[in-house]
Amino acid sequence: MRLRIVQILILLAVLGVVVIGIKHHSSQQTTAPTKTITISAPALIMRQSPNSSKAVATVKSGAKVGYIAKKKGWDKVTYDGKTGWLPSWLISSDYNATTATNRLAEQTIVIDAGHGGVDSGALATNGTYEKKYTLQMAQALQAQLKASHARIIMTRSSDTTVALASRPKLANRRGASLFISFHFDSSPEANTATGFTTYYYHKASKPFAKALSKSLNSLTLDNRGTAYGNFQVIRDSTMPGVLLEMGYINDYTDYSYISSSSYQQQVAQLVYKGLENYTAN
């Protein structure tokens, strides 16, 4: 009787091993690449996960990688026996990761033009609205960043109403690595305050705020530095984010800059430089 029980137990153990083997084989089949992608960029770095810093392999032009899945703008691939992630927007670009001095090209940057539509924002001394100039500045940065290869997402591209909560939700959903929101200050009494401030909410965003604030130092307006700000767009964003108050719209001097395309271009250039410096580390 005991011998019979032992035989049954052995049989069950063998069957268990077979079942586990079948499940493992099935799992391997479901994660195996279903197609291949040919890399046309000069060189890309395959990362351990989307937006991570750990490099898995360098993939050069002409290489074929096995495609597994897509997640928030990144492709999960296999190459040379390794599995990792590539920024999908760079696969067919002319970006060369081996010569880059920073990782700006690998960033997904959400640019938020504050206010818009029925939400006019603060009022300038001449009766124009904040929403007009936040959009102009956001678009100036968007144009400036085209040469960087970075993936740019705008919360609005026209004078439309965008709910406050939906702005960080968009950034979180699309897998943004950086978030920049443009606004302009307003003092209770006109012509009593001047300058620009870089706000952050999360502690992890403080180095990003400092990098941009430092880069903006050469502006004519006074740099009021970095400060903690409990603003929803940067509070609800899960990536490093800043809110830039780029001058007092109800101050005559500040407004003369805010409404100037040359100032907007200068801000865009300096923010671009700050992004380069921040992503170099």
UniProtKB/TrEMBL annotation:
The keyword Hydrolase applies. It is an enzyme of class 3 (hydrolase). Pfam families: Amidase_3, SH3_3. It comes from the Bacteria. Residues 32-95 form the SH3b domain. Keywords: Cell wall biogenesis/degradation, Hydrolase. Its EC number is 3.5.1.28. The keyword Lyase does not apply. PROSITE patterns: SH3B. GO terms for molecular function: N-acetylmuramoyl-L-alanine amidase activity. This is N-acetylmuramoyl-L-alanine amidase. It comes from Loigolactobacillus jiayinensis.
